[in-house]
Amino acid sequence: MDLGTLTQQYIDGAWRQGSSDKTLTVRDPFNGEEIGAFRIATVDDLDVAFRAAQAAQPGWEAMSAYQRRDVFEKAAAIVGRRFDEIADLIRREVGGTALKAAFEIGLVIDALKEASHTGFQIHGSIIPSPVPETENFVFRKALGVVGVISPFNFPFFLGLKPVVAALSTGNGVVLKPHEETPITGGTLMAQIFEEAGLPAGVFNVVVTEISEIGDAFLEHPVPRAHVFTGSAPVGRHVGEVCARHFKKAILELGGNSAFIVLEDADIDYAVESAVFSRFTHQGQICMSANRLLVHRDVAEEFRAKFVAKVSSLRVGDPADPSTIVGPLINNREVQNLQKVVDGAIADGATALYRGETVDNVLGPIVLGNVRTSDAVAQGELFGPVILFLEFGSDDEAVAMANDTVYGLSGAVHTRDLMRGMDVAKRLETGMVHINDSTISDEPIVPFGGEKNSGIGRLSGQATIDELTTQQWISVNHGQTRYPY
Fold first, then answer.
1. Nearest CA to 89 among 319, 301, 423?
2. 442 included as an active-site residue
3. According to the model, what pLDDT value does residue 4 have?
4. Which of 29, 124, 211, 404 supports an S-S bond with 139, CB 3.0-4.6 Å?
5. In 229-267, which positions are buried (b, 16+ CB within 10 angstroms) versus exposed (e)?
6. Interatomic CA distance for residues 181 and 27, integer angstroms
């Protein structure tokens, strides 16, 4: 993999250095080794990127759905062919384990394949008019240019998903990847799309820092919408800035997902599902289960089996194929989580299990004796920390699960599927999975959250609804008689 190219900006179909004198160094979160360095983009670079997307977008939208399909199909083939080197880059830049890398790359390939069909699903309509001899036509049109800001946790997929959503609906795109993962979250995609034949200027990647550009990315006059994936506090700011400038904001934010285990659940299976829901990619997933809500009749059995399973997880170097829990993205996140855990224990929580922490690898932690009102249960735990709580009835489980400002994902485990459906429908969350993990994303199912977990949906028809606009054109085949 040519990291010399991938550590440059990609603007208007050309690889170039950023105009700033500042350098962004990308490091392996496990061992601290330097992967590469960028000269970051300035506000002027940003302007060139948005203007390039604006100039190229009409030609891209005018291409047939068949022509656009070819680009996405070629991109999917490229990702499949480069699977091993992309997986290695995810390990080195993101700290992803082999399991995580394979999972993420699979999601990317699915997203690209689905994007190849989106253009065929964009339909207009003819609507009857009360005016004689008049026809009403409603057309779907691309918004124009869309800005995308991607996160560090699943940068390849969570960067590419909104990018292909916008491209597949005929929009131009400028992507600003997270500064921790600018290669897998940005320039790698540019390289793939360039090879796949995407016209120059349609897709641009600017690697920069907020200290350099401030809110210029959000405030630029060209983009009509921004898709942001990240924390709720930053998402609130993105939404506020977009509203001031009459731009659409699609926000996929954090979560505080509840994993509910009813007394009739398959306990062994629920344990397996819960461990996957929390510890995949070290818990650095917005859909990860933060809170285990277990019926008190089975709490003792579940707790013992869950702790035993957690204690068996391989922790350490993501280069080891057997590793499940690797490093957090940086040491700041490790220290922040340790402070949260120590504070919870000081407030009365009990460490049912606490693994060893070495550098950026935070060992798994299971906390018991927690109430939903405790500070630790109210926020998002973006790491390998999970809370164990008990309930006595379905109503109590629903109330506990909903006692949070977040509402992204959730899970309910029970042998009674109708009972599970009843509980799921009462949860104030955008997605619920019965007898499965809280972590799921499918290419044609609307994905998004409620409350502080975000605004808007992507995937399938939701992509078309969010990233196109409607235009009404009426045709009068006769002549209207006006009153004056």
1. 319
2. no
3. 81
4. 124
5. bbbbebbeebbebbeeeebbbbbbbbbbbbbbbbbebeb
6. 9
- The pLDDT assigned to 1 comes to 66
Distance CA 305, CA 169 (A): 47
> Residue 471, Cβ neighbours under 10 Å: how many?
11
- Taking only the tens place, the pLDDT of each residue in 269-285 is 999 999 999 999 999 99
Provide the phi-psi class of 460: left if phi over 0, else alpha when psi is between -120 and 50, else beta.
left
Strand ranges in 95-202 using DSSP code E only, listed in sequence order: 125-128, 134-142, 145-149, 172-176
Cα 141 to chain centroid, rounded: 25
Distance CA 62, CA 58 (A): 6
Contact (CB, 8 A) for 364 and 313: yes
pTM: 0.95
d(CA 270, CA 352): 18
Residues 6+ apart with CB under 8 A from 68: 60, 116, 119, 167, 168, 170
CB 380 within 8 A of CB 409: no
- Sign of the CA dihedral running 163, 167, 171, 174: positive
Q: Are 157 and 482 in contact (CB under 8 A)?
A: no
> What digits encode the pLDDT tens for the residues 54-94?
999 999 999 999 999 999 999 999 999 999 999 999 999 99
Q: Are 38 and 8 in contact (CB under 8 A)?
A: yes
What is the C-alpha separation between 347 and 376, in angstroms, rounded? 10
Distance in angstroms (rounded) separating the CA atoms of residues 12 and 49: 6
Q: What is the pLDDT of residues 352-405, one digit of tens each?
A: 999 999 999 999 999 999 999 999 999 999 999 999 999 999 999 999 999 999
Catalytic site residue 242?
no
Closest by CA to 367, choosing from 289, 291, 263, 465, is 291
- CB atoms under 10 Å from CB of 185, counted, come to 31
| 141: phi then psi, degrees, rounded to nearest 5 | -130, 150
**Active-site residue, selected from the candidate residues 194, 242, 286, 333:** 286
291-311: average pLDDT? 98
Strands 450-451 and 454-455 come out as: unpaired
In terms of Cα–Cα distance, which of 262, 229, 240, 277 is closest to 419?
262
Name the active-site residue from 252, 263, 333, 390: 252
Task: Give the tokens for residue 198.
Answer: 């995407």
